Amino acid sequence: MTLLIIIAVIVLIGLWVISLQRGLVSKDEKCKNALSQIGVQQASRWDALTALVELVKSYNEHEYNSLKDIIAMRKSINGNSSASDVQTQENALAGLTKSINIVAENYPELKASENYGKAMDSVNLYENQVRLSRMTYNDCVTIFNRACREFPASLVAGMLGFSVRDYLDEVAGNGKSEMPSMKI
After folding, report:
1. What is the per-residue pLDDT for 107?
2. Among 25, 92, 98, 117, whose CB has the most other CB atoms within 10 angstroms?
3. pTM of the predicted protein model
4. What is the pLDDT of residue 88?
């Protein structure tokens, strides 16, 4: 009888560990998916800003070359990237956006261009989508981190190879909680 009770307890603990592992894998995958979505939105934003840089080329070759150097910093963000990788890309994007705005201020005819206006609308759209993707990622990380840290799961999560994830900081790490100005 005692042997049956011990076997039953071991089976229950085994089933609990399996269930816990499956739940943590599911939450971890949601975090990776959310991070990938940020990468997709950032890539679209990079493309829109690259189109703006090409438009700048027709106004000033020197400005174009400077902006091209910033574009060369572009890196892909995927599910295996870290919060730090996303932040680095956000900083590069913010720098490029700021540089394009400065160029546009120096060339009123560029700013008045219909193509410039359409490209800036695209940049704004992708900026908002990145913001939503970042919020989704941080929400997923909250759920995952809570699952890793709450007792009794915290006793097993580390042994199963799960550890808490980093949250994404504010955009461009500059203390702003607002989107960079896109005034034209």
Report:
1. 80
2. 92
3. 0.76
4. 87
